Amino acid sequence: MNNVTNKVDESAELEQHATARVVLIASAAALGGFLFGFDTAVINGAVDAIRGGFGLGAAHIGFAVSCALLGSAAGAWYAGPLADRWGRVRTMQVAAVLLALSALGSGLVSGVWDLMLWRVVGGIGVGMASVIAPTYIAEVSPAQIRGRLGSLQQLAIVLGIFAALLSDAWLAGSAGGASKPLWLGLAAWRWMFLVAVIPALIYGTLVLGVPESPRHLVAKGRLAEAKHVLRQVLDMRSESALDRKLHDIEQSLRSEYRPRLRDLRGSSAGLLPVVWIGILLSVFQQFVGINVIFYYSSTLWHSVGFSEADAFSITVVTSVVNVLVTLLAIALVDRIGRKPLLTIGSAGMAITLGLMAWCFSQASGSGATLSLPAPWNIIALVAANAYVVFFGLSWGPMVWVLLGEMFPNRIRAMALAVAACAQWLANFTITSSFPALAELGLSFAYGLYALFALLSLAFVLLAVRETKGMELEDMRE
């Protein structure tokens, strides 16, 4: 009897094929990651124009840039329950609508408060897409290529950042400046937001054509539809293999335990040690200041002597570097391991951020009159891009990899939600505080981020476990 069962299991596994269709479906879902990157980075080119146009101080511009992250935290937290109720595809469609409305509203605002409102709306869409897209991809992918298809999400995020910064540079260049009028009498910075309607509509249109997750269909008792999707997406032709796959999904759903917040409680300051490690991974990923580079870099380089056009070009180059090192990280993660890459990244970021802090200590003036003389401006530029290399090789993708696999099965979903929420809140803290920190001095700001990078190195060496090659069932609390 065991031989028969083993043959059935083996047959079901062999029946799954990595079809072109499943790659296209996963790519369509990963566009949510593209919008994630695009929506969060697009404000980079608009910061100076918004600040000048609405007469904002450091605190107000910091909140205007970062308020979307509060919406993202809420969207990420509620995305799971909504996807269980409405389905993965419908939830992705809702996220696309929210992102399109946010882009339209942000580009047509009359004041800073309605800009903040529309940024929060877009943030909710980003948070939803950031959770549902990888979930959907995992649920429709064949086991043998699930990791590679799942990596499309991270690649889509950095491509979204690149596209946003490139479009910012092109629009500002076409108008002669971000605050100058472009088409229909609207300033270029408004078009920076409005162009985000295009990828949002493309995303919404593409997900209209993708099938619902078989797992969700089985959970809702729609077995015939689930079987049709499995046959269509995984190219499973054998009825016995299809029935076996449906049976496995049903058994998984019956035995699945839905964790609650109380399951995360432990003796280490009220939480299980592994939960604290997940939270600190998320917090350190943001506290090293990476999003300062992607949200404020055009303002930064403009303020220290580069022309506005050169500042935009530098920002685009930085985003290209980010894409390339993310590809390198995807190639290395299963060869070198998670912990070694994090260690290399932390050490490299501490050095490059410290060098940036030293460079900006040589600056003269403050605020709009800040000037960074040669050769310090070039050294700071090289150090900033080296910092992006070290981050993109390590803490960018590795934190998401670890959060997806480090928690025990029984608490994985809830622990991941808590860690992801902590990440958005840490992102908000760093992004909103940077303008005020910059007024105290860029040397102080980058010195602070260098300190956090150094602390992250000690944290990795002392607390983070290597998970390379480990089965998910072997993860401990």
Automatic annotation (TrEMBL):
One of its GO terms (cellular component) is plasma membrane. GO terms for molecular function: transmembrane transporter activity. The chain crosses the membrane at residues 20-38, 58-79, 91-110, 116-137, 149-171, 191-210, 270-296, 311-333, 340-358, 378-403, 415-438, 444-464. Pfam families: Sugar_tr. It is found in: Cell membrane. It is a multi-pass membrane protein. It catalyses: D-xylose(in) + H(+)(in) = D-xylose(out) + H(+)(out). The keyword Transmembrane helix applies. Keywords: Cell membrane, Membrane, Sugar transport, Transmembrane, Transmembrane helix, Transport. It comes from the Bacteria. Residues 25-468 form the Major facilitator superfamily (MFS) profile domain. Belongs to the major facilitator superfamily. Sugar transporter (TC 2.A.1.1) family. PANTHER family: D-XYLOSE-PROTON SYMPORTER-LIKE 2. NCBIfam families: SP. This is D-xylose-proton symporter.
